[in-house]
Structures are given as C-alpha cells and as structure tokens.
Design goal:
The chain has a two-stranded antiparallel sheet with strand order 1-2. It folds into two domains: 34 residues, no CATH class; 31 residues, no CATH class. It has three helices and two strands, in the order H-E-E-H-H. With 81 residues, the protein is α+β, with helices and mostly antiparallel strands.
C-alpha cells in the first residue's frame, strides 16, 4: 500500500537523504539497517527486519557461496551456457 511519495536528490557520491517524516516509519530510525532491492525499473528500501528469513538466508548464502563459486574454472565451465 502506497503511503507517501517524496523526492530526494542523488549526490555525486550516490547518496540520498531519506526525508524526515519517512524516517519516522518503523524500521527507518537512525542506525537502522535497510535492504536495497534493485529491479529493472525501480529500487526499494526496506527495513532489514521486514525482510523474510528466506531472503535473509539467500543474501547471506550468496556471500558465502561466492567464495567457492567465483573461480576461473567455474567461469570456463559455464561460459557457453
């Protein structure tokens, strides 16, 4: 459900400021961690605690698996697929 639409300017460092009234929403307090979900046509910011356990596990697994799967041998084996 859409609650509000606000605008923000992207700095040359790729930073944005979350408007003050949006920071009052649950999960967007100072020091809170947010998940950044990137789609083809949009980006969503969600409080980390709102992300389901399944997605959190996938995010953690990706980092762990990348160590074992990102090798020259893997790239060679998968290059034609």
């Amino acid at each position: 459900m859409l609650v509000e639409i606000k605008t923000a300017k992207i700095t040359d460092k790729g930073q944005i400021a979350i408007p003050k009234d949006i920071r009052g929403f649950e999960g967007f307090k100072v020091g809170s961690k947010v998940a950044i979900l990137a789609y083809d046509d949009k980006i969503e910011l969600r409080p980390m605690k709102a992300i389901s356990e399944k997605i959190s596990t996938a995010i953690a697994s990706e980092a762990v698996l990348a160590k074992d799967w990102n090798s020259k041998e893997d790239e060679e084996a998968w290059k034609d697929l």
